[in-house]
Specification:
Strand 1 and strand 2 form a beta hairpin. With about 170 residues, this protein is mainly α. It has helices at about 1-25, 45-75, 85-90, 95-130, 135-160; strands at about 30-35, 40-45. Helix 1 runs parallel beside helix 4 (about 95-130), helix 2 (about 45-75) packs antiparallel against helix 4 and helix 4 packs antiparallel against helix 5 (about 135-160). The longest helix is centred in the last third of the chain and has 35 residues, at about 95-130. It starts with a helix and ends in a 5-residue tail after the last helix.
Length: about 170
């Protein structure tokens, strides 16, 4: 499962970068960069600066989750805090537990990158449809994003409350 979540994460990251780079050529010189509470653009940026900013943020987000997995793999056991810590970090289950943590990190990363893909496409769409009325899609996406993160975190925590074998 760890390899699947990692593959999904890097596939979504590739899609994010591809969409930013591919859509660059179709964007106007000025791009919507801020939206009011009704979802109407109220500030604009230069296309090159905006894309540069998006690429920097996307690179940081994409690098953050593999870096967290690297750190978790190298962290001494005494610094890992889990429910049923003694059980889950016993020598015979330590690597299995680390793999579970890495799996959930990539799942959370995938949810985050999927939200970033939505944000970029939302901005791209709003740039071409500045007079488009509020449709509530951003608020709905934000609620889905927060709900998916909360569900994943609760599921991860509950998993470590159970004692199970490989």
């Amino acid at each position: 499962m760890f390899k699947i979540s990692r593959t999904i994460f890097f596939s979504l990251a590739g899609l994010l970068f591809f969409s930013i780079i591919f859509d660059y050529q179709f964007m106007p010189a000025t791009v919507a960069s801020h939206f009011n509470a009704r979802g109407i653009p109220d500030a604009y940026s230069n296309k090159k600066d905006f894309i540069f900013f998006l690429l920097i943020i996307s690179t940081i987000i994409t690098a953050l989750f593999p870096l967290m997995n690297f750190v978790v793999g190298k962290t001494p056991i005494k610094y890992l805090n889990l429910p049923n810590r003694t059980y889950w970090l016993a020598d015979e289950r330590k690597q299995y537990t680390i793999d579970i943590l890495k799996q959930y990190t990539y799942i959370i990363g995938s949810i985050t990158i999927a939200f970033f893909i939505f944000i970029f496409n939302y901005i791209y769409y709003k740039t071409f449809n500045a007079d488009y009325a509020q449709d509530g899609s951003f608020l709905m996406a934000l609620i889905i994003f927060i709900g998916a993160l909360a569900f994943t975190l609760v599921k991860m925590i509950l998993r470590f409350f159970k004692k199970e074998s490989k």
